[in-house]
Amino acid sequence: MDIAHPDTDKLVTVTLDPETIISIDPDEVHERRIAVFDLVEENQFAPITSIEEAHGPYALHVSIQGNHLGLDVRNPTTNEPIAAHFLSLTPFRHLIRDYFRIRESYYDAIKSAQPYQIETVDMARRGLHNQAAELLRHRLDGKLEMDENTARRLFTLICAVQPYADQRTNSKPDMPTVLFVCSMNSVRSPMAAALARRAFPTRIIARSAGVRSGKVDNFVHEVMEEIGVDMSVHTPHTMDELVASSFDLIVTLSDEAPPAVDARNYEVGKRLHWEVDDPTLVDGNRAQKLDAYRALREDLNNRINTELQSLVTNGSQIV
């Protein structure tokens, strides 16, 4: 099936779920960023279900749920959901394994091999990408439509994030979980979740959500980047979009968050409410607004390092 609107049916942004794709290793982060850049730079992409009703551009949010890759297609302006599909990684295991093997052979070859040897390895690499692209398009047939080059680039991104599938599947079942909730999941709750993951890497599962959906806040990206935390992967989500319904701790960060949590039948070990400032309400120039965001960052960081310590120390047994 051909792309219905080739001029507009394309991805303009791709984000990775920081709650399920959690590595902070600089080399791995760099590899993911390159894969995302290449995919967004040139692609043809459309969800089948919406081709007749509307056309792009689209935003794609990628997550990992067990052994499946979540592909969440949204409106890039309003963040409204358009289509969501889960892709099993099992059929791609041998291709992913071969991808890394051939990639290492290629890197070794360009250092010292003869030109004909480099060409041989490169041909194998291209052949693998073609095979993977064909399988990817077949597995997504009737769900997501893309051309071969887009499928090749998407496979490269899958290879960059797939190691976390096993990590998430094999994570300790008693790893404590905390949910941060604010009004729009744009500023306070995503910052808190990111800081919690930074403070207790691989020791806590931190999620965030909003009472309603907001928009990406670039000031958040800027002040978190100052401390080495990449927030460009964050996409605002509402509580209605959460898969999990059981948490060891829920921390509310806005006045409307507690009643919204009350209205849901979550299994919760403990709840906290933190009175924190909303930096979006600060008037002033750019520097003054950034200072307000930094003040929130430090306030949240201090609270997380003191009030969440017992949660991490005692696992799911909160004291």
Description:
It holds the Pfam family LMWPc. This is Phosphotyrosine protein phosphatase I domain-containing protein. With 319 residues, the chain is an alpha/beta fold. The chain has 2 domains: 11-167, no CATH class; 172-313, Rossmann fold (3-Layer(aba) Sandwich), CATH 3.40.50. 42% of the residues lie in helices and 19% in strands. The protein has 10 helices and 10 strands. A 4-stranded mixed β-sheet has the order 1-3-4-5. It has a 4-stranded parallel β-sheet with strand order 8-7-9-10. A two-stranded antiparallel ribbon has the order 2-6. Helix 6 (188-199) crosses helix 9. Residues 168-173 have low confidence and may be disordered.
Keyphrases for this structure?
alpha/beta, Rossmann fold, 2 domains, four-stranded mixed sheet, four-stranded parallel sheet, 42% helix, UCP032146
Number of helices: 10
What number is the mean pLDDT? 83
Q: Biggest sheet, open or closed, and with what strands and sense?
A: 4 strands, mixed
- Rounded to the nearest angstrom, the radius of gyration is 21 Å
Instruction: Compute the number of structural domains.
Output: 2
Helix content class: 40-55%
Strand order of the largest sheet: 1-3-4-5
**Which secondary-structure class do the elements indicate?**
alpha/beta
Q: Find the count of extended strands (DSSP E, 2+ residues).
A: 10
H/E series: EHEEEEHHEHHEHEHEHEHH
- Which residue ranges are poorly predicted, with pLDDT under 50 across at least 5 consecutive positions? 168-173
Question: What characteristic shape results from the CA principal axes?
Answer: globular
Bin the strand percentage: 15-25%
How far the N terminus sits from the C terminus, by CA atoms, comes to 57 Å
Protein name: Phosphotyrosine protein phosphatase I domain-containing protein
Keywords: Arsenical resistance
Domain Phosphotyrosine protein phosphatase I: 176-310
Organism: Maritalea porphyrae
